[in-house]
Write a structure and sequence with these properties.
83 residues, mainly alpha, elongated
């Protein structure tokens, strides 16, 4: 039962840690085209989409060789390894 609860918490943990890492770095914040709360919701959506193996994002995210692209790629791999 405890292992099941741990497996369920992997995806939300990946989402929160990925969004936090993206917001802590200057390069991650520079990937946002919209400042403020709307830009944060775009980053949060991109990270949660990557952690759930979807990979979509809002239009206000720069994806050309940004740190956010690296974060979302790592999240795809981590989520794929989970199963």
């Amino acid at each position: 039962m405890k292992l099941t609860a741990l497996a369920i918490l992997v995806t939300p943990t990946l989402v929160l840690m990925g969004a936090a890492l993206a917001m802590m770095t200057d390069a991650g914040r520079s990937a946002m085209l919209n400042p403020g709360p709307h830009g944060f919701s775009e980053v949060l959506y991109a990270v949660s989409s990557a952690a759930n193996n979807n990979g979509s994002a809002f239009a206000g995210i720069k994806r050309q060789l940004s740190v956010l692209e690296l974060f979302t790629g790592v999240l795809h791999v981590c989520r794929s390894l989970r199963g």
